[in-house]
Amino acid sequence: YFVWPSTCPEEGAGYVAEEHFFATCQALEAAHMRMAWPHRPMLYRELCGKLWIDKLCHHARYRIPPTVRVDVAAFKKDPQAVATAVLDSLMAIRSSLWQKDPIASVDFKG
Question: Coil, strand or helix: which one is 80?
């Protein structure tokens, strides 16, 4: 099959809702039908969901900009508090990883 997981399946032909795609992969593997194209489902989920970026940004050798994950439900509840926490986290990574002074939240432009 040639379909692609998407958070916006209405993008066009071949796109399916991400949760249905990976649930199908999991069900097929549970039935001993190995899925391996383009990657095993767990790795494919990490890659296409870009779930690896916030994990690997803590390793200087990869030269990935500081990245944090945002909880959508928390953001909808209190966007200002979450935005402040995100900026604080980004500056903490910047300081610890790159030994650069943090930028004050009020001065941050990015």
Answer: helix
Q: pLDDT averaged over the chain?
A: 87
Q: pTM (2 decimals)?
A: 0.68
Asked whether the bond before 38 is cis by omega within 30 degrees of 0, the reply is: yes
- C-alpha 19/C-alpha 26 separation (Å) is 11
- Residues with Cβ within 8 Å of 49's Cβ and at least 6 positions away in sequence, in order, are 18
Residue of 93, 89, 91, 110 whose CA lies nearest to 102: 91
Q: What count of Cα atoms within 13 Å lies in the side-chain half-sphere of residue 37?
A: 4
Task: Give the DSSP letter of residue 109.
Answer: -
62 touches 54 (CB < 8 A): no
Angle between helices 41-48 and 18-30 in degrees, nearest 10: 170
In whole angstroms, what is the distance from residue 50 CA to residue 78 CA?
25
| Token pair for 23 | 């649930």
Token pair 């899925």 is at which residue?
A: 35
> Distance between CA atoms of 37 and 23, rounded to whole angstroms?
16
